[in-house]
From TrEMBL:
Domain of life where this protein originates: Bacteria
Name recorded for this polypeptide: Activator of HSP90 ATPase
A Pfam family that the UniProt record links to this protein: AHSA1
InterPro entries named in the record: ASHA1/2-like_C (IPR013538), START-like_dom_sf (IPR023393)
Domain Activator of Hsp90 ATPase homologue 1/2-like C-terminal intervals: 13-130
UniProt cross-references to SUPFAM superfamilies, sorted A to Z: Bet v1-like
Similarity annotation: Belongs to the AHA1 family.
Matching CDD domains: SRPBCC_CalC_Aha1-like
Length: 133
């Protein structure tokens, strides 16, 4: 069985605000990376970070699904590894449950472990961004 990153988060923000943080390019830049994202199926975009000795800092992506405000999916291609990120949102008494699935890893590699740890760290930043809305 191939490894998958599956994480669940709970935010005390309405689903519309969480959706905005997932789909607005400027907001995404505050908790993920600089980007040229547009929530349009088929849109090709990049996430860009400062390069390091082991990574060029670029994630090539394509939007696969936009089902406002409940589901967003896009490819995540970096360092020769092609994966898929899918966000699922559920409203619950004014709060939002956010489920992440990052799939397509071939093994429990550096890419897989980096994604698993990276998404947890980015979700902490997302909570800060949501608190400021």
């Amino acid at each position: 069985m191939k490894p998958e990153v599956k994480l669940d988060f709970q935010f005390d923000s309405p689903i519309e605000k969480v959706w905005l943080a997932l789909t607005d390019s400027n907001m995404l830049a505050k908790w993920v990376m600089d980007n040229d994202f547009k929530p349009v199926v088929g849109h090709h975009f990049q996430f860009r970070a400062k390069p390091s000795k082991v990574w060029d800092g670029i994630v090539d992506s394509e939007v696969l699904a936009v089902e406002e405000p409940h589901r967003l999916s896009y490819t995540w291609v970096t360092a020769g590894v092609s994966t898929v990120v899918t966000w699922t949102l559920h409203s619950s008494n004014g709060a939002t449950r956010l489920h992440l699935e990052h799939t397509g890893f071939e093994s429990e590699s550096l890419s897989y472990n980096g994604a698993r740890l990276g998404w947890v760290k980015m979700a902490d930043q997302l909570e800060v961004v949501l608190a400021g809305l």
